[in-house]
Amino acid sequence: MRFVLLIPLLLTLLSLVGCATPSQRKPNVIVFLTDDLGVGELGCYGQKIIRTPHLDAFAADSVLFTQAYSGSPVCAPSRCCLLTGYHTGHAAIRDNKEIQPEGQQPLPSTETTIASLLRSAGYSTMAIGKWGLGPPGSSGDPFSHGFDHFFGYNCQRHAHNHCPAWLYNDRERIDLPGNSAKYSTSEESGPIYAPDLFRDQALSFIERSGERPFFLLFATTIPHAALQAPEADIAEYANQFHDPPYDGKKGYLKTQHPRATYAAMVTRMDRDFGAVITKLRERNLLDNTLIIFTSDNGPTFNGGTDSTFFSSAQGRRGLKCEIYEGGIRVPLLIRSPAGSRGTTSSTPCAVWDLFPTIATAAQLDTPDHDGIDLTPALTGRGSLAPRTVMYWEYPSSGWSQAVRFDNFKAVRTGVRKNPNAPIQIFDLETDPNETTNLAATRPDLVARGTQLLRDSRTPAALPEWNP
Fold it and tell me: Is the pLDDT of residue 5 over 80?
């Protein structure tokens, strides 16, 4: 009887010391999305030249995935896959398509994003960096898809300059004094480095988070060309290796030290990530935050970048804009509040799996999408849902498609020119670099691949995105 009488008093005391309600116990979620970062460009994935100490330390405290894929070999569709949980055979956005005067093909208002799902569950939401899924005021802008706040570039082309004349702060276009919209020479770059503003905005968002859980999409523009970094950062790598100048004649900004600049950009991105982790620790939020680090596609080939020199794709065939492994393999590190620490997972997974994984962490029901929940791979408990296929298509460059089933991958290229383009078959277990086409000796795999390539897609909304 005494215990029963004490219950109201105990409840009052718990409320006074800030005992969390069930909604407050939901984890925060941060997705740190890099731009054109290769799977081989982090120390924890074997990089020997570029220094990434913060991410290497994070990898030792999270789950490192060795067979992770982007949604697409280019920006916009991969971001669509991340936010909506669909692969490019079902996604609303399947290629980059610029809309004048600013922005890309808008994501339809009918799409449910992970941000809108989380906001409906009481999360505070913010997107920082590069958007690329719809012009300001369109059905595809960040505010139409679950974000309370946005800071950064709306348009992908605008994001080719890391020292732009202006950015968006929510719906307001703000000028950056001293910066030029041009980027043909380093002298025209300007003093304000946009990635620094992104970092500061992220830290501020975390700092002002109150009792509500939050979702932060930190979509940095690093290390996408143009090659631009503060001189002090470039100096860390100056004279460390042969580094002939890039003249800018093939696009983007010319630079005196392209390799040193690229390495400096990745290392600076690593420091920005480290600053986010430090802020979470300061606010005592680290152990109640699901943190995901990945890239939107494989490493690039233009603007003075040198993916061969840095072994950015780890020797895999292809780069950005190709659906071979080099164009879609990406780093993926996940630290879950209830997850394992310092482990490696060989589970084949893709960016569209993040939707159900985040939803599970937030204790939300997941709509039927293409992704599977990676929580068992994070916790070591339970079993992953069975996956039939992993599918990609890329309308540009002649239209190509690929499907992974088990350890095999079927690839078709040049489909628009030849609707009966032959299928290539690769065994990724024994041939991860896709050097040996097995089609001639494995007609059974060709037949299966043919069917899966056909059955894994529905027609795209834009006729130009269909073969």
Answer: no
